[in-house]
Amino acid sequence: MEGYIEYISSGILSLTNAGADFIIMAANSPHSVYEEIEKYSEVPMINIAEVTVKNAKKRGVKKLLLLGIKYTMQSSFYQNVCKKYGIEIVVPVEKEQDRVNEIIFDELTIGMIKDESKAELLQIIKNYNVEGVILGCTELPLIIKAEDTSLKIFNTLELHVEAALNYAMESEC
User: Fold this and answer.
1) 18 partner at 20 to 30 Å CA-CA among 41, 62, 126, 159?
2) How many Å apart are CA 57 and CA 49, to the nearest integer?
3) Is the pLDDT higher at 151 or at 173?
4) CA neighbours within 13 Å on the CB side: how many for 138?
């Protein structure tokens, strides 16, 4: 973990030295060390989990399913943010986590979109009594769309980009 933090911190330092006005880590898993990293940043950072959960709160959601790589589903950063906003979060059972992880790494990251994998992901979603689903991996929107389910879908990639754009426009970087 120490090496992971150092690796991300060096990137943040490079961005700061290059004159960045603010920083986003455009993936979910690095946010597992967001609190440690933010301490070293001299410029503001926008947290993907914070943005996502605030959006869920605004939309009146009280219980969310988190999908992502296994590391993200087993980390506590989304749970911690949800707790702060009074939102319950659940993750799939380990067997389902393994399958979600496989779909992401063995298919989505190489641009492979399979109907049977989409059906599996939608079945996993149906297995849980939730009001919304966090697509906690930036590849998941390639296969899961809002129209695929009656639940509220939280596309972390889209929400993070919107937050960055809003921040840039408000602060006129």
Assistant:
1) 159
2) 12
3) 151
4) 14
Contact 132, 153 (CB under 8 A): yes
Nearest to 28 by CA among 90, 82, 88, 70: 70
Judge: domain 48-159, CATH 3.40.50.1860.
yes
From the list 119, 29, 115, 123, the residue with the least C-alpha distance to 77 is 29
**Dist. CA 51–CA 116, nearest whole Å:** 31
At 143-161, the pLDDT tens digits run 999 999 999 999 999 999 9
Rg (CA), the chain: 16
CA–CA dist 140, 79 (Å, integer): 19
List pLDDT tens digits, range 97-116.
999 999 999 999 999 999 99
Distance CA 4, CA 32 (A): 10
Lowest mean pLDDT among 33-42, 44-53, 104-113, 114-123: 33-42
DSSP structure string for 14-81: HHHHTT-SSEE-SSSGGGGGHHHHHTT-SS-EE-HHHHHHHHHHHTT--EEEEES-HHHHHSSHHHHH
Candidates 3.40.50.2300, 3.40.50.1860, 3.30.9.10, 3.40.50.720; CATH matching 2-47: 3.40.50.1860
> How far apart, in whole angstroms, are the C-alpha atoms of residue 82 and residue 11?
27
